[in-house]
Amino acid sequence: LTDDSEGEGGEDTMGSRGSYTAAVAGIAAALQAVNMVVGGKCVNVFCAVRPPGHHAGRDLRPMNAISNGFCLLNAAACAALYATAPQSEGGLGLKRVCVIDFDVHHGNGTQDILCSTHDSRFLYVSLHAGGAHINGYDDGGNGSETDDNLRRSLPGGGKNEGIFPGRCGDTSPHEGVLNIPLGQKVTAQAIGNALVSQVSPAVEAFSPELIVLSAGFDAHKHDPLGMGGLSAEDFGSVTDVACQMAFKSCSGRVLSILEGGYGVPCCRIKNDLFLPNNLVNGGDSTDQADGASKNLAAFKILDLGDDLPTSMEDDVPIPLQQKLDRCHAEGFLECVKEHVSSLARHG
Fold first, then answer.
1. Cα distance between residue 109 and residue 104, in whole Å
2. Rounded CA separation 141/93 (Å)
3. Which DSSP category does 230 fall into?
4. Would you state the pLDDT for residue 323?
5. Which H or E element spans position 152?
6. pLDDT value at position 141?
7. Would you state the pLDDT for residue 325?
8. Buried (b) or exposed (e) across 179-201, using 16+ Cβ within 10 A?
9. Is 62 within 8 Å of 55 (Cβ atoms)?
């Protein structure tokens, strides 16, 4: 990403020529969205930005994570910091901001930046896959040898097992953090119960002046990560609950920032999905078929520009192709649609 980069973000966090610019643009979009919501131009905003950010912390691999998890800069944390910075320092001077993160992974970067120690300006809430029975237990020496051996025999008891980013989301270190691990797979029942019984009371007690959503959609049932069982409609319901919290505490102010979500059927073209409308179902004539084939070549699935050699192919393993093919019926895009539709209903 830079001339002096040492590549320490981990094997899954790399970049191209435009990655840093994209990340900075994502931060700018989030700050502008804060201005719009707090300034009264709109009730809520959705920032469709990439790359995601909630694993990016003060330093690389925050909270002992093995990588930066695709993340370069943390837009949600920057938005919260900007909103609460004093006006004399260029901020908006809010007293309290709540970040609710429903990505399937714990937002270790956001917790690291905002809540490494208790800061009365921030409440960080994360609903994610994980738990001590999956990620393992710290060997604190408090239990008997029999207890320790039993723990190590459970799933995640070994040092190399568990769900990224690790144990940091299994507990809540202080009153400014509410981490809710939901097990090996996030289900609609589990996240719904957590929102009603734990998140809503905590947010109401905190009384934020703005709610920031770290909106990850990788808990969808067709996401290739396989750690969720939610439908697109479920994500709409999660958003409904978040907006209802916002109306109780901060006149509906919600800023949503895109995080994870990888259920996109981009392995290969499905029929004539990318053909112009005048070439779709254009008849059976040979001339029309030849014209469609020529135009089809111009519509690449992923157009990476001149940086991608023409000889390079996107070699997607068959099992992954099969997973992503399910997303033709419902996947990441449908999740975003339900999320944004919910924001529109409450806006």
1. 14
2. 45
3. B
4. 83
5. helix 145-153
6. 44
7. 81
8. bbbbebebbbebbeebbeeebbe
9. yes
Residues 6+ apart with CB under 8 A from 64: 166, 168
Q: What is the DSSP letter of 162?
A: S
Tell me, what's the pLDDT at 202? Answer: 98
* Exposure string over 256-280, b if 16+ CB within 10 A, otherwise e: bbbbbbbbbbebeeeebeebeeebe
Residue type at position 139: D
171: number of CA atoms within 13 Å, CB side? 9
Q: Computed from CA positions of residues 21, 24, 29, 35, in that sequence, does the dihedral angle turn out positive or negative?
A: negative
> Can you give the pLDDT at residue 8?
62
Q: Which helix (H) or strand (E) holds 258?
A: strand 254-258
Q: Which residues of the chain have pLDDT under 70?
A: 1-11, 136-161, 266-315
The amino acid at residue 212 is: V
CA distances from 78 to 24, 73, 99, 142 (A): 11, 9, 11, 39
- CA dihedral 288→289→295→297, nearest 10 degrees, is -170
Rg over alpha carbons for the chain, rounded to the nearest Å, is: 22
CA distance 215 to 181: 16
What pTM did the predictor assign?
Answer: 0.82
The total of other beta-carbon atoms located within 10 Å of residue 59's CB is 11
